[in-house]
Amino acid sequence: MIGSVLFCIYMTILQEDYNTQRPLLGISEYGRHVQEYIEHIKSLPSKEERTSWVHNLAGIMATLNPDIKLQVNYKEILWGHIFQMADYELDVDCPYEIVQVKQEFKRPEHLGYNVSGIRFRFYGRNLQMMIDKAAEMEDGELKQDLVNMIASFMYNSCKAWNNENLSNEVIAEHLKTLSKGQLKIEGSELVVSADTTVNVRRPMPQKTNNFGRNNNNNNKNKNNKNRGKNFRRF
Question: Based on the number of CB atoms within 10 Å of its own CB, is 72 exposed (0-12), middle (13-18) or buried (19 or more)?
Fold first, then answer.
């Protein structure tokens, strides 16, 4: 009964003083206790007392963050952190010139992810960009070389991911589909270079059935036991 009452009291305190309901931390690396320490300093009536407490707090923060002592002006940095966590509303005798810097939170702009689907997933999205660029080019030797390079990439990609050798006619048809009819090339016009170093993706090996293996082991053990029984000791 007492345990249930204590649990209810604890949950009530927890709900009233939960982190999401507390004010935001000025610098979260120092934790909630340092922030509450600063709020207490701000409530002190005497300026001398507040200044003394801030000196003590700077020493505590240096202990919590010992790497800051490697900097030459680490004490000035600590005082700056204290003023920042106090929202620059701290009336003390500061030995340093603290510049008030308030950073306003700005929501980052949307990156604009490309949500368009891919017609042939084993080619990837970059191939579509290459085909669009080739479709914009004027007819000529340079465009034909680019188309041949794209066709070679398509052949090797399909071989690597699907273990399938595409014919020039199929590649020409895919080029026409992906370019929305702008690249009308016959299969006989393509010069495809096969990459002999392409590693073909193989299916994962299936798990072996241990049931039969265990039965074989059991039979071997039985045979060994029978041999032991028939063995005649002198």
Answer: exposed
Q: In angstroms, rounded to a whole number, what is the distance separating the alpha carbons of residues 62 and 122?
A: 55
pLDDT at 4: 59
pLDDT in tens, 94-147: 988 877 766 666 777 877 776 666 777 778 778 888 888 888 888 888 988 999
The length of the chain is 234
How many whole angstroms separate alpha carbon 44 and alpha carbon 37?
A: 11
Considering only the C-alpha atoms of the chain, give the largest distance between any 2 of them, rounded to a whole number of Å.
Answer: 103
- Portion of the chain with pLDDT greater than 90, in percent: 17
183 close to 175: Cβ distance less than 8 angstroms: yes
* Distance, CA of 134 to CA of 127 (rounded, Å): 10
Per residue in 37-53, is it b (16+ CB within 10 Å) or e — as a string? Answer: bbeebeeeeeeeebbeb
- Residue written as tokens 């935001």? 24
In sequence order, what are the residues at sequence separation of 6 or more whose Cβ sits closer than 8 angstroms to the Cβ of residue 147?
134, 175, 183, 185, 190
Between CA 218 and CA 94 the distance in angstroms is: 83
Give the integer Cα–Cα distance in Å for 57 and 79. 9
* H or E element at residue 134: helix 125-136
Residue whose token pair is 């701000």 = 42
| DSSP per-residue string spanning 143-204 | HHHHHHHHHHHHHHHHHHHH-----HHHHHHHHHHHTTTS----GGG------TTPPPP-PP
